[in-house]
Amino acid sequence: MSSGRIDVHSHILPGVDDGCADVPQALACVAALVENGYTHAFCTPHVWPTLLKNNVTTIRAATADLQRHVDAAQLPLSLLPGGEMNLLDAWPGISALPDDQIVTYGLAGKHALFDFWADAYADCRMELEAAIGHLSGRGLKPILAHPERIGAMRDPGAIERLAELGVLFQLNSYCLAEPADERIHQTAVRLLREGRYFLIGTDTHRPAGMASRMRGLQIAADIAGPEAVQRLTVDNPRMLLAGAK
Ligand SMILES: [Fe+2]
């Protein structure tokens, strides 16, 4: 499958979480992605215990619905379903879910995007590692969204530990466009320089945020080189397309 850039993290499905509120907002975000060389985007709404309406069935339907609007607007972007699980909130409930009800990239049952929130790794280690072990045990590759935004992940030992457990890391492009004295920016730069990231996503929520997300890609190229940005926005994301349904 040929592709340009593939966005691996977006909240563009309208009205399902704290992302785009309606179809016009979603289409404005899609137009910005197309302008910046994207040909595909995974729709990754939050999957939280408080957002039970976001599940495999509803996300698949909402993605197809938004694709119809994108096609009608003649915007050349292919949408794929996915989701962003808050893994600490999902644990241990997720252990009772049938495998085909765990939200994965393309609903392909191969790669699962998750986040969690904790200030210190020691505070969440047991639950988090149990949940990651459950995903791995189901044959899923866990991918942590935006470690640079998570207090617990500013500890290099926590990054090393999750890497040992087989977790891959996804950078939010806009974090590089934050002021240089912000810890989010500094952590993103450090992890990018260390080669820790497998993917760059936009984590798009609304049209107003698109400019800083795209500026972040240029900053990533300045730091790590255009080949690295190609690998993180095109080559590695292409692996997520395999088996997408
Ligand atoms: Fe997100």
Describe the fold and architecture.
Helix content is 42%, strand content 16%. With 245 residues, the chain is an alpha/beta fold. It has one domain: Alpha-Beta Barrel (TIM Barrel), CATH 3.20.20. The strands form two sheets. Strands 3-5-6-7-8-9 form a six-stranded parallel β-sheet. The chain has a three-stranded parallel β-sheet with strand order 1-2-4. Strand 8, helix 6 and strand 9 form a beta-alpha-beta unit. Helix 7 crosses helix 8. The radius of gyration is 17 Å and the shape is globular. Bound molecules: fe (ii) ion. The site of fe (ii) ion (FE2) has 5 residues, from loops.
Which helices and strands occur, and which strands form pairs?
Layout: E1 5-7, H1 23-35, E2 38-43, E3 46-47, H2 56-72, E4 78-81, E5 84-86, H3 87-90, E6 111-115, H4 121-137, E7 141-145, H5 156-164, E8 168-172, H6 183-193, E9 197-201, H7 210-224, H8 226-241
Parallel strand pairs: 1-2, 2-4, 3-5, 5-6, 6-7, 7-8, 8-9
Helix pairs in contact: 7-8
The structure holds fe (ii) ion.
Keywords:
single chain, 245 residues, alpha/beta, TIM Barrel, 6-stranded parallel sheet, 3-stranded parallel sheet, 16% strand, globular, binds fe (ii) ion
Query: How much of the sequence is in beta strands?
Result: 15-25%
What ligands can be seen in this structure?
Answer: fe (ii) ion
CATH architecture: Alpha-Beta Barrel
Low-pLDDT parts are: none
- Per CATH, the class reads Alpha Beta
End-to-end CA span: 14 Å
Number of domains: 1
CATH fold type: TIM Barrel
Q: Biggest β-sheet, characterized?
A: 6 strands, parallel
Rounded to the nearest angstrom, the radius of gyration is 17 Å
Tally of alpha and pi helices: 8
- What is the number of E strands? 9
Structure classification: alpha/beta
Q: What is the approximate shape? A: globular
Q: What order do the helices and strands follow?
A: EHEEHEEHEHEHEHEHH
By CATH, the superfamily comes out as Metal-dependent hydrolases
Fraction of residues in helix: 40-55%
Mean pLDDT: 96
Report strand order across the widest sheet: 3-5-6-7-8-9
